[in-house]
Amino acid sequence: MIMQENISQINAEQSADSFFFLKLKPIYNFIKTQHFSFWMICLYLFFEYSRPQSIFPAIDFLPWTRLFLIGALLGAFFDGSVKWVSSRANILLILFSIAIFLSIIFAIYPEISRERYFNYYSWVIIYFLIITIVNTRERFYVFQLIFILSSLKIALGTSVNWAKRGFSFTDWGLQGPPGFFCNSGELTILMLTLFPLAFLLLSYNKIRISLIEKILLVACFCCPLLTILGGSSRGSQIAMVATLIIMLRKKVLKFKYIILIVAIVFIGNKLLPEEQKTRFSNMGDDKTSIQRKLYWKHGREMIAEHPFLGVGFCNFQQYYQDHYAYDLVVSAAQVPHNIFIQVGTDAGFMGLIPFCLLLLYALITPIVYSRRYGKNSNDLIVLCMVGAGYGIFGFIIAGQFVTVAYYPFLWIGLAFIVSAKNILQKEQTYLYLQQDQVGSE
């Protein structure tokens, strides 16, 4: 029984390859054979990212995402393939969850913390459901494809909207669908998680793909860049440049990548509105920057004064209003606009340390596996893992200017990485068992 399961795992690569990039018939034939738990977790991701309930108000009469999560949770108990996944990330996540729990109990404003506890703990449930249910190459690729196409839908819509208004500047930038990606800052971070993955998949030349599939992949790379440029979020634009530099650092001397870099710089310079260029030149001195620097300054003071558990989960805004109202250049206190200040004030060093270690894990693990599979690795799962790592890198850079620690970017990206790692480890284990069996004979 164990041998049969291992064989199915190692042979899954061929099936996953047959899906690339968007081979609808084999994908459909695969999905219809899958367990209810996998259908539910896929529907959750689709409804969370594509937001059909917002596009078609007639179906917006139930809390669809929560219902699909409950379905995935119940289904996981009857899915024979679902097993506990061991990972250092799990330990760090549990430690972080304990810190958040204690920060809620001992918060300065506990009523605020109790109202918002699900803002974080929902991601713990989602993370563990993904890493246990998405446990084969086929499942991983289909799940990743839902993320790609759902994000592309948003990227296409927002980039087209920017083009329709003549690539002009607005204070609010661009808006996504209602939910996590509505505001420009969060929308552009979603784009930061899409374009690196698309870029890497464009390099996956193991299987020939049709012209339409190539166009879709190119759109997955170009449309997010346009949305970031039109989104008026300086933090995401800085993160975009940093991510491109990291991605192309070893290819900068190759002719086709020189052309790509020159094209991106030229187009970006032409399309970026003058008002946005002015915002960059005034960065640090404008009203928004001054207020954010004050949030960061007093946020560090909050952490120093409450080092163990911070001021309480989601208590920053009220605490700032009550203790630092004299340092407001806006009408009322806002969120801290920095993920490290956010977590540090929410849960002190007890939460900040495991949070930072989770970020390091998400950055280092894809590097380790890309090197383990060779300098010229063309493994589809490894490419997706590396793409998720680049996305989290962009999230960290942009997260220095927005309050997004409890948004999907980190937790979904981390789940992708751990899920991919689990699949690759199971394949390695099978190969070792097979080699031992041959050696014993």
Which terms would index this structure?
72% helix, disordered N terminus, mainly alpha, 19 helices, 441 residues, globular
Describe the structure concisely.
The chain is mostly helical. 72% of the residues lie in helices and 0% in strands.
Give the secondary structure arrangement, pairings included.
Layout: H1 2-19, H2 24-31, H3 36-49, H4 52-55, H5 64-76, H6 88-105, H7 110-116, H8 118-133, H9 137-164, H10 184-202, H11 211-230, H12 234-247, H13 255-271, H14 274-281, H15 287-305, H16 316-323, H17 339-372, H18 380-398, H19 408-440
Structural summary, described in words:
By secondary structure, the protein is mainly alpha-helical. It has one domain. Helices cover 72% and strands 0% of the residues. The protein has helices spanning 2-19, 24-31, 36-49, 52-55, 64-76, 88-105, 110-116, 118-133, 137-164, 184-202, 211-230, 234-247, 255-271, 274-281, 287-305, 316-323, 339-372, 380-398, 408-440. Helix 1 (2-19) runs parallel beside helix 9, helix 12 (234-247) runs antiparallel to helix 18 (380-398) and helix 17 runs parallel beside helix 19. It starts with a helix and ends with a helix.
Unreliable runs, pLDDT <50, ≥5 residues? 1-14
**What best-fitting shape do the alpha-carbon axes yield?**
globular
Q: What is the count of β-strands?
A: 0
Average pLDDT level = 91
Percent of residues in beta strands?
A: under 5%
* Whole-number total of structural domains: 1
